[in-house]
């Protein structure tokens, strides 16, 4: 039974999310028939699942809501704000029950009574109708019959990367010749990589068709291209079935771990193969290596989920919270389709909630205050996800009163986070960053919304764990923006491997802007700090050998510099040599190692030796402290 | 006369790698640019036979640079150098007129295959 239970919980969750989402939509537009139907269907499904599990309370509640929705559907009942509240309550009860939290039986009883009275008050209680069974989607493929059309089958090689883009190179070629008609699968599916290793392109008949095909064959990563014979076209409707299966996250994690190990093993094998100079071995290893990359890619893709899965939980929460605080808030979600590793997304659920909470509670002013300050009486909070180089940016912004710089300074001084002297060197953003320290909270009184103690500090810690960064910018009476920069995935990162005093360190590419070689005499000392000049800009230098107290430091004539960007400032990390650019598997530091500043993790390199991954923002702040 | 190539990438590291691959095959690296706008500028001056173009760079992106260059020189031969996961950007670049692309990390042979194909296009 426990197997079913797991499945029940995860599926009920999904339906509950869908339902509460629709309830909120219904609140905005009380005639939204789609929302009404969606709530009805969701509850119907939950009812059926709960009944088969023998969960009678859930069954009753979902059944009662389903009935109400049916009345609404048949226009026997009007949607009202009270009813919306009731629906949300019912959803909450089910949510708690699903997670085995106790809900007072009396509460459920009275809830059911209220629903009953609504139903009888509306005269007729109809029997619920059967809803349509969900069928597998059938996608018929268009029949082709025009004789002036030619079909070319394109076969991709096994090692093709960015398949959609590769297909587009072919299509663009045909488009430029003005002969492209359509493709199978259709263009959108091709752009979404919804095809295996072949596609069919339909083109206008041309005398140059042989030439066209030859040219396509010449495109890299295209294994073959040929004209499809007329008879090959099937008159029958071909049916493609789309099927999904559920896989437990644990299995997926295991799979990813094995794939990661495989990557390490591959690296080692490659080194051996190259040192043996055995052509045959190298070649067969190269093709194996591509397969490994593909496996890794696929697993990565499986792990990616749209951020909407977490983002869509918040509107409900913001609505409740702002109502309770009697503030008017317009909550906007953008970029919900952006994908992120499931593990990263899950670990962000609480931190984001926290930032949103803060935005409603501390950021957005009361209606009166806003009117007094000539602002729109409704505050706006935007939660947005964006793809950037090597990662995803999530921003939480509000148009509220902004952070109070003076209060932060006062608090920081009283908590001894900083002294007067250091304060002189801090710029505005540095000051705002002070609130990332644990135990920092400027709101004096304790309340049940924001609590005390855990503040932005907790958010910052979570980000650090997953290799992300947090930046804060704020403007008085204009609002505050929290920017979370996240890696796409946890396990494997692209890095530059460097050598410092005979030791090997790994620097994640995320932070690297560029790499530069300089001579010893290009290093200057300004105010006891080493700097160098790059395109008229003075850039502070950080010697890794100093930070990590390397033993065999030798004076060199030439150095290499890794230019990194941290919080909008550039720094040059001084190393002896660049060794190579490589993808590495990140392992977290454990035990006594976990306390070391400036290190983000450890990885096994291709030669089998473990090396440390540099925590770039950490190293920068260590260097700043001197 | 050797084929002249302009290499555009914000990372010196990548520029060097690509340059090494091409030099070995007898290409002449006539210039290197670290930003999109620099690339456009240098293209005008050098009018190389081929450009390798990174996609994400400070100031002007590689895609915008392709647009600028193609606007002035419709027959420019540009090869995009992309990272994994930049599929939609690559598509955009091809749409803008780039002729082909390679994906980092790459095998030298793979780069040369694309370079030669682009050069052979009319």
Automatic annotation (TrEMBL), chain B:
<keyword id="KW-0597">Phosphoprotein</keyword>
<dbReference type="InterPro" id="IPR001789">
    <property type="entry name" value="Sig_transdc_resp-reg_receiver"/>
</dbReference>
<dbReference type="InterPro" id="IPR011006">
    <property type="entry name" value="CheY-like_superfamily"/>
</dbReference>
<dbReference type="InterPro" id="IPR052048">
    <property type="entry name" value="ST_Response_Regulator"/>
</dbReference>
<dbReference type="Pfam" id="PF00072">
    <property type="entry name" value="Response_reg"/>
</dbReference>
<protein>
    <submittedName>
        <fullName>Chemotaxis protein CheY-like protein</fullName>
    </submittedName>
</protein>
<dbReference type="GO" id="GO:0000160">
    <property type="term" value="P:phosphorelay signal transduction system"/>
</dbReference>
<feature type="domain" description="Response regulatory">
    <location>
        <begin position="4"/>
        <end position="119"/>
    </location>
</feature>
<feature type="modified residue" description="4-aspartylphosphate">
    <location>
        <position position="54"/>
    </location>
</feature>
């Amino acid at each position: 039974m426990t197997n079913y239970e797991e499945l029940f919980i995860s599926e009920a969750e999904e339906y509950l999310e869908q339902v509460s989402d629709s309830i909120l939509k219904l609140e905005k537009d009380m005639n939204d028939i789609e929302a009404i139907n969606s709530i009805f269907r969701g509850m119907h499904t939950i009812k059926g699942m709960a009944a088969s599990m023998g969960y009678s309370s859930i069954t009753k509640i979902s059944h009662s809501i389903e009935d109400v929705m049916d009345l609404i559907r048949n226009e026997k009942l009007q949607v009202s704000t009270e009813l919306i509240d009731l629906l949300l309550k019912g959803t909450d009860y089910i949510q708690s029950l699903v997670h085995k939290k106790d809900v007072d039986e009396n509460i459920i009883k009275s809830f059911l009574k209220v629903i009953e009275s609504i139903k009888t008050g509306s005269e007729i209680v109809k029997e619920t109708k059967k809803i349509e069974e969900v069928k597998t989607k059938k996608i018929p493929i268009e029949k082709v019959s025009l004789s002036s059309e030619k079909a070319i089958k394109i076969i991709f090689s096994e090692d093709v990367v960015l398949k959609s883009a590769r297909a587009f190179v072919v299509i663009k070629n045909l488009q430029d010749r003005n002969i492209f008609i359509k493709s199978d699968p259709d263009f959108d599916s091709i752009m979404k990589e919804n095809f295996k290793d072949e596609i069919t392109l339909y083109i206008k008949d041309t005398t140059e068709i042989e030439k066209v095909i030859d040219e396509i064959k010449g495109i890299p990563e295209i294994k073959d291209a040929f004209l499809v014979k007329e008879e090959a076209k099937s008159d029958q409707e071909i049916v493609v079935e789309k099927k999904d299966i559920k896989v437990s996250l644990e299995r997926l994690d295991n799979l990813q771990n094995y794939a990661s190990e495989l990557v390490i093993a591959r690296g080692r094998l490659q080194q051996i193969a190259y040192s043996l100079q055995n052509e045959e071995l190298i070649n067969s290893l190269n093709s194996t290596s591509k397969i490994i990359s593909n496996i890794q890619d696929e697993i990565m893709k499986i792990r990616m989920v749209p951020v909407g899965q977490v983002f869509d939980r918040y509107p409900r929460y913001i609505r409740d919270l702002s109502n309770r605080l009697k503030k008017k808030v317009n909550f906007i979600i953008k970029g919900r389709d952006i994908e992120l590793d499931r593990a990263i997304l899950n670990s962000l659920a609480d931190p984001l909630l926290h930032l949103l909470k803060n935005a409603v509670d501390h950021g957005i002013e009361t209606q009166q205050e806003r009117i007094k300050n000539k602002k729109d009486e409704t505050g706006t909070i935007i939660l947005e996800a964006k793809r950037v180089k090597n990662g995803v940016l999530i921003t939480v912004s509000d148009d509220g009163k902004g952070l109070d710089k003076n209060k932060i300074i006062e608090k920081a001084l009283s908590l001894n986070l900083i002294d007067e002297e250091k304060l002189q060197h801090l710029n505005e953003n540095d000051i705002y960053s002070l609130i990332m320290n644990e135990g920092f909270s400027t709101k004096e009184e304790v309340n049940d919304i924001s609590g005390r103690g855990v503040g932005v500090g907790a958010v910052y810690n979570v980000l650090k764990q997953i290799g992300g960064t947090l930046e804060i910018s704020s403007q008085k009476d204009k609002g505050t923006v929290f920017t979370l920069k996240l890696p796409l995935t946890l396990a494997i990162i692209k890095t530059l491997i460097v050598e410092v005093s005979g030791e090997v360190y790994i620097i994640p590419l995320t932070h690297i802007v560029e790499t530069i070689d300089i001579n010893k005499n290009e290093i200057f000392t300004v105010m006891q700090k080493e700097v160098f000049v790059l395109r008229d800009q003075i850039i502070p230098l950080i010697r890794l050998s100093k930070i990590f107290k390397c033993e065999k430091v030798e004076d060199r004539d030439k150095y290499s510099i890794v230019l990194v960007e941290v919080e909008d400032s550039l720094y040059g990390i001084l190393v002896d040599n660049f060794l190579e650019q490589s993808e590495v598997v990140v392992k977290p530091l454990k035990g006594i190692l976990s306390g070391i500043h400036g290190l983000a993790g450890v990885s096994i390199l291709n030669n089998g030796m473990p090396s440390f991954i540099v925590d770039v923002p950490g190293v920068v702040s260590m260097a700043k402290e001197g | 006369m050797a084929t002249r190539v302009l290499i555009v990438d914000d990372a010196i590291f990548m520029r060097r790698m690509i340059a090494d691959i091409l030099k070995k095959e007898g290409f002449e690296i006539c210039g290197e640019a670290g930003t999109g706008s620099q690339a456009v500028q240098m293209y005008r001056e050098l009018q190389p036979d081929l450009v390798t173009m990174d996609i994400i760079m400070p100031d002007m992106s590689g895609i915008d640079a392709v647009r600028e260059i193609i606007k002035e020189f419709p027959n420019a031969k540009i090869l995009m150098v992309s990272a994994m996961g930049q599929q939609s950007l690559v598509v955009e670049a091809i749409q803008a007129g780039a002729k082909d692309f390679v994906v980092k990390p790459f095998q030298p042979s793979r780069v040369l295959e694309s370079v030669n194909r682009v050069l052979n296009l009319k």
